[in-house]
């Protein structure tokens, strides 16, 4: 029998449960930083698994895992990663994907912190950046170089709400084997899902769509194919700014209250 996908309102109420979760309706907040293992072999397996949620909380935590499953489902992603802040997510993702000598194409309009990362910090580490008009897809194509490794987008862009043609940029990036990353904070996954248009990674500030802009509850990068998740899993552990113990619960409660699903713009 073919099962229809759950409506988002139904998914946020039931989509976070995994086979190893207990029967609690609300997920418990796991306060521990390290976790025990039943044997040496089990501990070795935990320590060598990318983002194991019962090894060390910086890499993963059972509370975070439940929230990440919800987020990944809403975004149509393979997986998601909860971090403590928006710039923590953006910085960890970009620094994981580029190295000295690489080139990044980005937009002229970005959130202020992202603009500082692009204009001040990346050049200090030997990463060159070209800024283009996001409304002109041909400008992205003209900026591609042999050393281009990442195209960084933000749409609708803060603060002007300028839009980017995801499908055109995704097609361009595929043809040149370049990864794409989009900050999609302003639009909820009900209004916009960049991964469905071919973008490789996206992130959103959960506090902007959940508890409210005054609560910096957390941010998540979400991943789809083209090796994006493998590259992130392999290099993000040393620069991921994991959320506080209550971060997962705050975001989970905002999702359970249907806040991102009932607010349509």
Description:
The protein is of the alpha/beta class and 265 residues long. The chain has one domain: Type I PLP-dependent aspartate aminotransferase-like (Major domain) (Aspartate Aminotransferase, domain 2). Helix content is 37%, strand content 13%. The protein is built from 11 helices and 7 strands. It has helices at 8-14, 40-48, 62-75, 86-97, 112-124, 137-143, 166-175, 206-209, 228-235, 247-256, 259-262; strands at residues 79-80, 103-107, 128-132, 148-154, 179-183, 201-205, 219-223. Strands 1-7-6-5-4-2-3 form a 7-stranded mixed beta sheet, sandwiched between helices. Helix 3 (62-75) packs across helix 10. The longest helix has 14 residues, at 62-75. Mean pLDDT is 79; it is low at 210-218 and 259-265.
Round the mean pLDDT to the nearest integer and report it.
79
Number of helices, where a helix is a run of at least 4 consecutive DSSP H or I residues: 11
CATH class: Alpha Beta
Into which percent range does the helicity of residues fall? 25-40%
Any idea what the CATH architecture is?
3-Layer(aba) Sandwich
Radius of gyration over all CA atoms, rounded: 18 Å
User: How are strands sequenced across the largest beta sheet?
Assistant: 1-7-6-5-4-2-3
């Amino acid at each position: 029998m073919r099962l229809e996908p759950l409506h988002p309102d139904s998914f946020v109420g039931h989509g976070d449960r995994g086979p190893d979760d207990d029967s609690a309706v609300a997920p418990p907040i796991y306060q521990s930083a390290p976790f025990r293992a039943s044997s040496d072999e089990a501990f070795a397996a935990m320590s060598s698994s990318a983002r194991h949620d019962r090894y060390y909380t910086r890499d993963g935590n059972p509370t975070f895992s439940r929230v990440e499953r919800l987020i990944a489902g809403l975004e149509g992603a393979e997986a998601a990663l909860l971090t403590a802040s928006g710039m923590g997510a953006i910085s960890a993702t970009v620094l994981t994907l580029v190295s000295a000598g690489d080139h990044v194409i980005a937009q002229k309009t970005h959130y202020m912190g992202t603009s500082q990362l692009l204009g001040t910090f990346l050049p200090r580490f030997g990463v060159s950046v070209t800024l283009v008009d996001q409304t002109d897809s041909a400008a992205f194509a003209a900026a591609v170089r042999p050393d281009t490794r990442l195209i960084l987008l933000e749409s609708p862009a803060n603060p002007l709400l300028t839009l980017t043609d995801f499908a055109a940029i995704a097609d361009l990036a595929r043809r040149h084997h370049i990864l794409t990353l989009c900050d999609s904070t302003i639009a909820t996954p009900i209004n916009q899902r960049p991964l469905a248009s071919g973008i490789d990674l996206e992130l959103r500030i959960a506090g902007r769509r959940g508890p409210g802009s005054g609560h910096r509850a957390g941010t998540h990068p979400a991943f789809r194919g083209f090796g994006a998740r493998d590259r992130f899993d392999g290099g993000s552990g040393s620069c991921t700014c994991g959320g506080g113990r209550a971060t997962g619960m705050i975001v989970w409660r905002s999702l359970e209250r249907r806040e991102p699903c009932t607010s349509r713009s």
